[in-house]
């Protein structure tokens, strides 16, 4: 069987397995005996500590990955509005009634649009909703008595944090568990994710090679594409899956790079963002540019498609690690 067909077949099986694994984790969490969690609680949010006197009742959530996480944690009934998901709703996974019940109040939220929703909590990230340019910041919201939690990966946008790793994702899930009073549910989910990541890395540790990999977003035009440096979750995903990010020398998260540098660094696999741009259009462009014809990933059509929630920190990231590892190291997962 050709390698790319094997990768696609493995990807399909792994995708089903990943969905089943998340569902199993949620069922296991639901089966845990309910225990009243004491409040107040304090959680670290980037470089601040935020105190919660009670669980949020009117939460706003920005962007697909964070919306997916609150759905998977069973918190959709606490959410009164979401933003940043327009055009990508088809990628959200959950009960149809839950997905249909998500009310979009804005695409790019501002301080004014958020205040208009009278929330008591906002879950977003720097460059994932929070922005000094729009005035939507945790500090501004705090003056109105609105608590916030910032996506851990995004803290690199405002200061130095610990090096990127899968622990950033676990920190987000555990923090949300504490904030919403579902700590046991979050701990059960994280324990399942740790087990699954350990199972993948135990296999990829035996790999005789770590293929060169690139993440590609906005990759359907001659304009500089978006890729990922060492500080983005997508780079962590590549490493855990047994690959090496060709832009791991960039001490940042998501950055624009030149096509010339892509050609020079010659990725062997390309992770293509299946977000709002049709993947067929991206592949058609990549395979039509003469200057990229020698790139191994393009020449051998070695592409893996990842959704936005999979390649940014969310409860779907672990499933993507499993799927990408099987695609690039099929010999380890026979």
Short description:
With 334 residues, the protein is of the alpha/beta class.
Structure description:
With 334 residues, the chain is α/β, with parallel strands linked by helices. The chain has two domains: 3-21 and 210-332, Nitrogenase molybdenum iron protein domain (Rossmann fold); 33-193, Rossmann fold (3-Layer(aba) Sandwich), CATH 3.40.50. The protein contains 13 helices and 14 strands. Helix 1 packs antiparallel against helix 7 (183-204) and helix 6 packs antiparallel against helix 7. It is globular. The relative contact order is 0.15. Residues 58-334 form the Fe/B12 periplasmic-binding domain.
Output mean pLDDT: 91
Identify the overall geometry: globular
Q: How many β strands by DSSP?
A: 14
Q: What is the CATH class name of the largest domain? A: Alpha Beta
User: What's the CATH superfamily of the largest domain, by name?
Assistant: Nitrogenase molybdenum iron protein domain
CATH topology of the largest domain: Rossmann fold
- How many helix segments? 13
- Derived from helix and strand composition plus strand pairing, the structural class reads alpha/beta
How many domains is the backbone divided into? 2
Show unreliable segments.
Answer: 1-34
The N- and C-terminal alpha carbons lie at a distance of: 13 Å
What's the helical proportion of residues? 25-40%
Biggest β-sheet, characterized? 6 strands, parallel
In what range is the share of β-strand residues? Answer: 15-25%
């Amino acid at each position: 069987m050709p390698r790319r067909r094997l990768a696609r077949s493995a990807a399909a099986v792994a995708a089903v397995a990943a969905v089943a694994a998340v569902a199993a984790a949620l069922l296991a969490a639901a089966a845990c005996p309910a225990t009243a969690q004491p409040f107040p609680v304090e959680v670290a949010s980037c470089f601040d500590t935020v105190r919660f006197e009670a669980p949020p009742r009117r939460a706003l959530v920005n962007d697909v990955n964070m919306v997916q996480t609150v759905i998977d944690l069973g918190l959709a009934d606490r959410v009164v509005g979401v933003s940043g998901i327009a055009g990508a709703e088809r990628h959200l996974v959950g009960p149809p009634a839950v997905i249909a019940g998500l009310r979009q109040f804005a695409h790019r939220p501002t301080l004014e649009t958020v205040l208009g929703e009278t929330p008591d909590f906002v879950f977003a990230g720097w460059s994932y909703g929070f922005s000094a340019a729009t005035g939507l910041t945790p500090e501004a919201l705090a003056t109105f008595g609105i608590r916030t939690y910032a996506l851990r990966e995004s803290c690199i946008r405002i200061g130095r944090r610990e090096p990127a790793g899968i622990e950033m994702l676990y920190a987000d899930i555990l923090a949300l568990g504490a904030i919403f009073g579902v700590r046991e549910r979050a701990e059960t989910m994280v324990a399942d994710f740790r087990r699954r990541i350990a199972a993948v890395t135990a296999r990829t540790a035996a790999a005789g090679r770590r293929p060169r990999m690139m993440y590609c977003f906005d990759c359907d035009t001659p304009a500089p594409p978006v890729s990922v440096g060492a500080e983005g979750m997508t780079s962590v995903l590549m490493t855990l899956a047994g690959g090496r990010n060709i832009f791991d020398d960039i001490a940042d998260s998501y950055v624009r790079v030149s096509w010339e540098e892509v050609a020079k660094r010659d990725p062997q696999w390309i992770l293509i963002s299946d977000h709002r741009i049709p993947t067929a259009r991206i592949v058609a462009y990549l395979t039509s540019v003469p200057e990229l014809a020698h790139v191994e990933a393009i020449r051998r059509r070695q592409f893996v498609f990842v959704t936005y929630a999979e390649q940014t920190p969310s409860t779907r990231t672990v499933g993507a690690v499993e799927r990408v590892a099987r695609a690039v190291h099929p010999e380890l997962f026979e």
